[in-house]
Write a structure and sequence with these properties.
The complex is a heterodimer of chains A (113) and B (116).
Chain A (H helix, E strand, L loop, with lengths): L2 E5 L2 E5 L4 E8 L4 E8 L5 E7 L5 E3 L5 E5 L4 E6 L8 E9 L6 E2 L3 E6 L1
Parallel strand pairs in A: 2-11
Antiparallel strand pairs in A: 1-3, 3-8, 4-5, 4-9, 6-7, 7-8, 9-10, 9-11
Chain B lengths: L4 E3 L2 E4 L5 E6 L6 E8 L3 E9 L2 E4 L8 E7 L2 E6 L8 E8 L10 E2 L3 E5 L1
Parallel strand pairs in B: 2-11
Antiparallel strand pairs in B: 1-3, 3-8, 4-5, 4-9, 5-6, 7-8, 9-10, 9-11
The chains are: A mainly beta (113), B mainly beta (116).
Amino acid sequence: AQSVTQLGSHVSVSEGALVLLRCNYSSSVPPYLFWYVQYPNQGLQLLLKYTSAATLVKGINGFEAEFKKSETSFHLTKPSAHMSDAAEYFCAVSDQGTDKLIFGTGTRLQVFP
Amino acid sequence: DAGVIQSPRHEVTEMGQEVTLRCKPISGHDYLFWYRQTMMRGLELLIYFNNNVPIDDSGMPEDRFSAKMPNASFSTLKIQPSEPRDSAVYFCASRPPQRSGANVLTFGAGSRLTVL
């Protein structure tokens, strides 16, 4: 069965520092992979998605993620954190040809001035 | 487009009462999903519909939970009777028809349920 594991439920960085949020997936077939962001009291918004095209995917707000099949990873990065990046981030997986999107447990990002 | 619309945004009720959560998907989207979010269990898929037909309800916790989609623009999630452990944020999400690309969900703002 498909699943994702997000390492670290909380990540804290200083403003301007590199953001790295980790996600590993498990899937028996080539997956589709996603990162969503959730701001307080809001629904989830799509940051970026991987659909078996380019392995480096660029998303909104300066975020990007790299699909590494050998490591079964899809880590999210941003070179320089901004205060407005403070939110909860969810990695999700969906097998090609299926309808279900399975989410990880989320990583809460704090950004300090 | 107004996006996925959920109501109520907040609901506080007493144990044993019936709770009905409502969702209006984006026009033209033929998939609708209900998720539940709690601190302990994260985001759980409860049930999803395609063209108003329930496709997979394996995530529905128990018989107290039921969901319907009487038409393409409306869905309900009902809990009867409600229990304190049902307290959570319930999200509705919709998606356009299946294509060759990935299935991107658009989420509503959620309904926060508190059962006392």
